[in-house]
Design brief:
single chain; mainly alpha; two-stranded antiparallel sheet; 7 helices; elongated
């Protein structure tokens, strides 16, 4: 049975380059913590990069699919309006397109971030599902930062704390 790939996944695969280098445990914890808090996740920690021209092409394609039929439908209705209204409408539409690209990039970035966090999570935490344990691991990681746990002891500390909270 073939897995269905969503349009978002296809766009993400087209727009982003993903590094072959492994993501270290500490970077996963940091990225998970930032993502859960709705913060910006450093692309270097997870190993991805946006190819901006491909993002422009993908966004232009989406805009064309949405706007061309809309303009064809509205052309007759707007044809006899005062040209000042048409100019103002063009300015608003252009501004919406450029602002929309910022939201599009953010939407894609959130998608690739979550995809890579889940992929790396499966490697570092194979027995703990992301959906159930991501918040617990975030809390343990933040606690380890307060306690100033050394990098070399971090993985053992997190796993011990995770197992200890699971036993309760």
């Amino acid at each position: 049975m073939k897995k269905q790939i969503s349009i978002k996944e296809k766009i993400i695969d087209y727009v982003y380059t993903i590094s072959n280098q492994p993501v270290i445990f500490r970077d996963l914890l940091s990225a998970n913590s930032h993502y859960n808090e709705g913060m910006y996740v450093d692309a270097g920690k997870l190993g991805f990069r946006m190819r901006i021209w491909k993002a422009y092409l993908a966004y232009a394609g989406i805009c064309a699919i949405v706007l061309i039929p809309l303009f064809l439908l509205l052309h007759k209705a707007l044809e006899h309006l005062n040209f000042h209204i048409s100019i103002i409408g063009s300015i608003i539409a252009t501004a919406a397109i450029f602002i929309g690209f910022t939201f599009f990039k953010s939407w894609l970035r959130d998608g690739i971030t979550l995809k890579l966090i889940k992929k790396v999570w499966a490697i570092h935490f194979p027995y703990f599902s992301y959906e159930k344990y991501s918040k617990k691991v975030e809390d343990i990681y933040n606690e380890s930062l307060k306690k100033e746990i050394h990098k070399k002891d971090l993985q053992q500390y997190v796993l011990e704390q995770l197992v200890a909270t699971e036993d309760k």
